[in-house]
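Thread: quick sanity check before group meeting

JM: Hey all, I'm pulling together slides for Thursday and realized we never actually wrote out the predicted structure for the chain we discussed last week. Dropping the sequence here so it's in one place. If anyone has concerns about the input, flag it before I start.
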Amino acid sequence: MSEPIEKWVALYRRAWESNDPDDIRALFTEDASYRTEPFAEPWDGHLEIVEGWLDAQDDPGAATFEWRIAGQDQLTYFVEGVTDYRDGPIYSNLWVVKLVPDGRAEEFTEWWMEQESSQD
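JM (edit): ok, ran it. Output follows.
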């Protein structure tokens, strides 16, 4: 993994599967801001991020996630992804992740939009 974001996304996926508070905290600085939508009130700091994450958690193995780096501005990364839920919808994702030099995120914002079903 050459890019810091590659390691961060791998750790994010580990936390997504484990829902372990330590895995979640390891992703973010102590005073990080996590927005589940661009204009939503953020979860600020480890306590709110862990609580928010666990309130909205997915079951382990519930989804696959394919992604690529769409762009970068210094330590701010733009990630395009597709989340495919085994028993549900498929979402297009755009993440904006601002990392600090140690590889943790100080800001995370996600956009997500349900894809149209090809079975309709």
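AS: nice. The chain is about 25% helix and 40% strand. The chain has a mean pLDDT of 94.
JM: adding both to the slides.
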